[in-house]
Write a structure and sequence with these properties.
Order of helices and strands: EEHHHH
Distance between the termini: 48 Å
Number of helices: 4
Strand content: 5-15%
Helix content: 40-55%
Strand order of the largest sheet: 1-2
CATH architecture of one domain: Orthogonal Bundle
Radius of gyration: 18 Å
CATH superfamily of one domain: rRNA adenine dimethylase, C-terminal domain
């Protein structure tokens, strides 16, 4: 919406701050919340690693999750859209239900 000068803060930061508006979606992507939280936590816990490595802490084969979501295993978490995380969460839920 607008920027805030560094002079507005004490101590004064070396960056300009911005005020933004977040608008929630009317209907969130349907997936199991616990699975989505697990996938996101695993992915962002080791942010600078490729997803094929950072998702190894999950109770499923990372390459299977990534393939089902159509996400390149060499990508990093911060480059994946929300839809990719939702797809991986759905696959994780499906794998749990198979057992």
């Amino acid at each position: 919406l607008f920027d805030i000068s560094p002079a507005a803060f004490v101590p004064q930061p070396k960056v300009t701050s911005s005020v933004v508006r977040l608008v929630p979606r009317l209907s969130p992507e349907p997936c199991e919340r616990r699975a989505l939280e697990q996938v996101a936590a695993a992915a962002f816990n080791q942010r600078r690693k490729m997803l094929r490595q950072s998702l190894k802490s999950l109770p499923a084969d990372p390459l299977r999750l990534l393939a089902a979501a159509g996400v390149d295993p060499t990508r990093r978490a911060e480059t994946v859209p929300i839809s990719g995380f939702v797809a991986m969460a759905r696959e994780l839920t499906d794998i749990r239900n198979e057992k």
